[in-house]
Amino acid sequence: MRTLVSLDARTLMAWATELTPLRIPLGHEGRRWVELQKPTSLELVEGEGVRLETSGRVRWTWKGMGAPLRLRRVRALIAPRIVEGGTLVFPMRFEHADLVRVPRVIEEAIRVRVEEVLASEKTPLRVELARFLDLRVPVRALERSIHFDLTRASVYVRDGAVQLRVEIDAAMEQLVG
């Protein structure tokens, strides 16, 4: 069974607005994080991902000290993709990040470290599709259950939408008990 989910920019903007503010952990026992506010704009970039503009805060620690720093403006590119095991990840790369009252050299160092977490396949922005779509639906009248299993998935930005294509196998199993 093949399914195509297509999300246009307006739908994505509505979701992004509902999901924000969003605090993303960056490790160090919760002492480092980035928090994104409601987006001011969202654009689909064909073949690349979703570009959004927003503001926010970053909490960064150094030698045991740290404080939230205000992000006046952030432009980020989120490039969704499927990685091994059927996981949908949303790596994020900052195209522009303007920290308030922070020298450019420190701002750049923080941006690089934040991207080491957010832009990798280990990003905390992820959905375990294989586990999410691993369903068993009992059909008592048939004394069987239908087991759905993710076999393949892909995601891309094309034709003005983020498109998620999944292939699912379905098999019948005898109900136990």
Descriptive account of the structure:
With 177 residues, this protein is of the alpha+beta class. The protein has three helices and 13 strands, in the order E-H-E-E-E-E-E-E-E-E-H-E-H-E-E-E. The protein folds into two domains: 120 residues, no CATH class; 46 residues, no CATH class.
Notable traits:
single chain, 177 residues, alpha+beta, 2 domains, four-stranded antiparallel beta sheet, 3 helices, 56% strand
Rg calc: 20 Å
Strand residues, percent? over 45%
Report low-confidence residues grouped into runs of 5 or more.
none
Order of helices and strands: EHEEEEEEEEHEHEEE
Total DSSP helices:
3
**What is the approximate shape?**
elongated
Secondary structural class: alpha+beta
Alpha carbon gap, first and last residue? 29 Å
Largest sheet: 6 strands, antiparallel
How many strand segments?
13
The portion of residues assigned to helices is 10-25%
Mean pLDDT across all residues, rounded? Answer: 86
Number of separate structural domains: 2
Helix-strand blueprint:
Blueprint (H helix, E strand, L loop, with lengths): L1 E7 H11 L2 E4 L7 E4 L4 E5 L3 E14 L2 E14 L2 E3 L3 E3 L2 E8 L4 H15 L7 E3 H4 L2 E5 L4 E15 L2 E14 L3
Antiparallel strand pairs: 1-13, 2-3, 3-5, 4-5, 5-6, 6-9, 7-8, 8-10, 11-12, 12-13
